[in-house]
Design brief:
heterodimer, A: about 250 residues, 2 domains, 12 helices, B: about 190 residues, mainly alpha, Arc Repressor Mutant, subunit A, globular
């Protein structure tokens, strides 16, 4: 069946009969039987007026869906918390460190029984890789940064470094980049390479990574047999896990 | 709250209007766009308007297979790129140039050519969307249930306490009404 040819614009199209409307609708949502769908598709290609009618039905349906979704967007928007990215990031980090602190206490008891505080053992006892940032959190406007963060979380440390080093060349004083490059080297076991980056991240006074950077630097100092310098640093940056580490150092 | 979606999850969620996923995608990407707008001479309300427009554009482009995200990171990057382009277009616009010198604001990429029929289709969609918003609640609700919430005619018929054939006819009449409102002289 061919539908009447009409090359005029939408406003002059006759209304679409119900039967045709429902057939177009079924075609668009792929609910026509396969053979019927193929015949109808060929017919649409042959008949410009029908093609226009199909487009119109598609537009009507899309418009209904878009308008419905648009109404929802304001509701979604109300669920955004002020500064939700940063706060949720802090909250996540806080929860993690609470969990980490609990873990440290449990392991601490175990190691207490072992009664050994050599630098290597202290390092091994207190070190756990930084969990990384939630990959949806926006602290740096760079897709590559998040791409690297995905690698980091998957423990593909070299891949993460390959993505972050070029960014660091562009922003050599960025505390986030310096911190994560540093902790990535640390995760690779290379404390020598990790130290200058962690140091660089410590230069930003307002950095949200300052306490963590200080903790990791203290661990590196402990490993390098510089316990006094580590103690000083931990006292200056007294996070919960810094206190725990300090407690072990004093024993 | 799951945030790392697979490609197939994002496409399916967008094609079926899965609100929990849509909400997560919305919430997870807003701050980055807002930050960009605020850094580039915009305000928070402008960031919200821009973001919602962009979100709908991305939704539509995925629906029409004009863009296929490889993961939520692909979705995020695509959405942010469109937001940047749209905001750049705004900064270039005569409306903005009236008050600010462009050179002091941002370095801009060359404008992309947009086919005329793209704007015609956008205008048509806007006209249909506006018409939908002005419809009476019974039609609006029925069309929303069927097309947006993907409820079956049977389910809608049960809710309306009428039979399925009547629901089908009612849906058709509502669509015709929508079309009439959109095409009537303003």
């Amino acid at each position: 069946m061919l539908y009447p040819l009409n090359n005029n614009i939408l406003k002059t199209l006759d209304h679409i009969p119900q039967e045709l409307f429902e057939k177009i609708e079924a075609y668009l949502n792929h609910s026509l039987p396969a053979s019927e769908g193929e015949v109808f598709a060929a017919e649409i290609e042959r008949n410009p007026a029908l093609k226009q009618q199909v487009q119109e039905v598609q537009d009507l349906i899309t418009a209904v869906e878009m308008a419905s979704l648009n109404e929802k967007l304001d509701i979604f928007h109300q669920e955004l918390k002020p500064d939700s990215d940063k706060k949720s990031g802090f909250q996540n980090v806080k929860i993690f460190y609470w969990a980490a602190a609990c873990g440290v206490i449990v392991f601490g008891l175990y190691f207490f029984l072992q009664n050994s505080n050599s630098p290597e053992k202290l390092f091994a006892k207190h070190y756990s890789p930084d969990p990384g940032l939630p990959t949806t959190m926006s602290t740096v406007d760079n897709y590559t940064f998040y791409d690297g963060m995905v690698d980091y979380k998957l423990k593909k440390y070299q891949e993460a470094l390959e993505k972050w080093h070029p960014l660091l060349q562009q922003k050599p004083y960025n505390d986030t980049l310096n911190y994560f490059v540093g902790v990535t080297y640390l995760a690779l076991g290379d404390t020598e390479k990790a130290l200058p980056y962690i140091d660089a991240s410590l230069q930003t006074n307002e950095s949200i990574f300052k306490d963590d950077a200080a903790f990791y630097k203290a661990l590196i100092l402990i490993k390098n047999n510089e316990a006094e310098a580590a103690k000083k640093l931990l006292k200056e940056n007294p996070s919960e896990r810094a206190q725990t580490l300090l407690g072990d150092l004093k024993e | 709250m799951p945030t790392n979606y697979q490609q197939s999850q994002i496409i399916l969620a967008i094609k079926t209007n899965d609100e929990s996923v849509l909400k997560n995608l919305y919430i997870n990407n807003f701050k980055k766009v807002e930050k960009f707008v605020l850094k580039n001479n915009g305000s928070s309300p402008q960031a919200k308007d821009l973001y919602q427009e962009v979100f709908l554009t991305v939704w539509k482009n995925i629906r029409e297979d004009k863009f296929t995200p490889l993961s939520d990171y692909g979705f995020d990057a695509y959405l942010f790129q469109i937001a940047k382009n749209k905001w750049t277009d705004y900064l270039r616009s005569s409306q903005y140039k009236k008050t600010r010198s462009l050179e002091t604001v941002i370095s801009l990429e060359p404008e992309n050519e947009v086919p005329v029929n793209h704007w015609e289709q956008e205008a048509k969609l806007k006209s249909f969307s506006d018409a939908f918003e002005s419809m009476g609640e019974p039609c609006k609700s029925l069309l929303k249930d069927f097309y947006y919430k993907k409820k079956s005619l049977r389910e809608i018929a049960q809710n309306l306490n009428i039979d399925e054939a009547s629901t089908r006819n009612k849906k058709y009449r509502c669509i015709q009404k929508l079309r009439e409102i959109a095409l009537s002289p303003k």
